[in-house]
Structures are given as structure tokens and as C-alpha cells.
Specification:
The chain has 10 helices and 10 strands. By secondary structure, it is an alpha/beta fold.
Length: 362
Amino acid sequence: MRSPLRRRLGTAAALLAALGLTGLMGPAAQADTPATPRFTDGFGLTRVGDAEVRSSTDFTITVTTPHVAGPHKIRVFLPSGYAAHPEKRWPVAYFLHGGGGSVDDAAAAPALRSDKMITVVPDGGLKGWYANWLMQNTAAGKADWQTFHLEQVVPFIDANLRTVPDRAHRAVTGVSMGGSGALHYAQARPDLFGHTASLSGGIDFGMAEVRAAVLATELNLAGAWCAVSSSSSTSGSGTCTGYGPYVDSDAIFGSPYPVFGADRLWNAYDPAAPANLSKLAHTEVTLYTGDRGVIDANTARAAATVKARLDRLGIPSRLVDYADGASLSPRCDGGHNYGCWAAAFADYVPRLEAAFAAAATN
């Protein structure tokens, strides 16, 4: 014979069902969560916690790795037809966020939600600079960002999603700090990436202004580079979250001063160095920048330098200097923000999609 409590629970369940409110009851609520691909640990990455699911084509997983301290998020945008076409494989674009930013910054560029490719947004740290740090015992802890991204995240994604796992169908893009990371990663691993795009990137480490920006992140001197690059809105008016804990000014690349070769790590990383640019001989290179404000006045100089050096090397590239932004979008003021970057991606992504499609026919 059922107890009074069980009878009351049974009556409540029947009432909720009659009212169409069974979704309010515990286990049944899970059925409303959109299905997303199942990820298996591997390549040194271990999943932790549940996925943050916004939809079946927009979700974030969290992983840990021995190469970077703490848990780290990876946000994924799938094409709308991903689940409906289980036999199909898709090209992949990696998006690298800026300093003080996060994986959610990608939402500020709607063009990255493409129906013709997968977009993957790995955490790059508040000041990771997409590099393996010289110092590993700072307050930031272990910081081998390049190893994490190139040797772990890329093969992890290829193993868990239906990608086309070759360089012709893989791109790396980024804004600001992520713009330098995108160009650097394409140079470090030309076997992985056939396409790269840098938007307002700090891509010339020979410039004192770019080195100063790196130092500012290490010392957590929050300024304009952070304040407008971490927005999740298309207006670029987000609040800067800072750069995390203070670390030594030599933590990432060592001494920035060109005295007796002390800045050798800066020079080795420098995306604008001719020796590094020469590695892009078979890579499609695109650069975007405005020239307004303190920051993009410098990214415009850096982009012009890189373009000129690529020209001298005989390597094709495309530079879009949209100046005050009028030619790009009414929302773009030529500055360092997603009002411009969203429009730049709206121009770039269809070109990238076309390149991916052309590669599929060859």
C-alpha cells in the first residue's frame, strides 16, 4: 500500500503532466538540453564538468592540461547542418581572442557562426600571448599556451568533431593579442594552417609600442588594449577584466631590451621577422586594421611593415587598412574594437569559405 507521501507525489506529478509542466521536474528537465557532440579525453586534455550549452550548435566545454595552469574553456560554433549530415566533414577556423578577453568574445562577430565551417575558440589566457612562457613559476603558474593549442587542442578537435583534418581546410584568425598569435601559429605550424588572418594585431615585435603592450599585460597595467578588446558586444564597449595576477616583466619573452642578445625570444617569436614571414610562402595571409586611436595607429604601422616584407619575399597577401572605418561599416570608427572587427570578419569569412570550397574540389 502506498504511503501518503508517495500518493501526494504521484498526484503532483499527474497534475504537472496535465498542465504540460513536466519540464519543471528534475530529471525531465534534462531532456530539454540540446544534444551536442560527445567529447572523449585525449592528447593530454581532460574534460571537467558539464558543457555550457546555448544551443546544439553553440556550446562550451572545459578542459584541464598539464601545460597550462587551471581549467580552460573551448567554445565551439557548429554549422546548422552538422547533426543533419552525419556523413559530412567540415573545415575549421580557430579564433584567438585578445588580451583581457575570453572565449565568449567570439559572439561579438556574428560571421564566425558559419554554416560552412566549424569555428573553435580556445581560451588564450588574459595575457597568454599565444606563447610558451620563459618563466613557469610565476603567479600565473604553468603557461605553455602554444603547446596547449597546437599540440593538444587541434588534434583533440579533429578527434572529436567531423573535421577535414588538413591545412587546406584549417585557418587560424585572431584580434589584437590574438592577431599576433594567429600569424605566429601559422608560422610555427605551416603544416596545420593553410589560412591566417590578423585583425588589429600586435604583429611587429620590433616596435617598442608592441613590446610595451606585452609588458603592460605582464604587470597588469589595464589600459586601452584591454578595455576595448574584451567586449562581447558588437559596439566594443565592454568592461576590461584586467590581465590577471602580476608577473615579472620578463615572464613571457625575457628581457625586451636589445642588449647583447637579451631579447632573443622576442625576435624568435616576432611575426614580422622576415625569417618567420618566409614560412608563410604557401599560406593565404590576410591583414585588417584601422588607423584611428593610439592602438590602431600602431597596428596600422605593423600591418604595413608585414605587408611590405611579404611583398619583398614574393608571398601574396591581402591588407585591408580601413582607416576611419567608413569604408567598412557604419559601426566602425577605425579603432580597436568589435564594431570594426565584426565587420572585418563579415568581409573575411565568405572569402575563407570560398577558399575552403575551392580546396575541396582540388
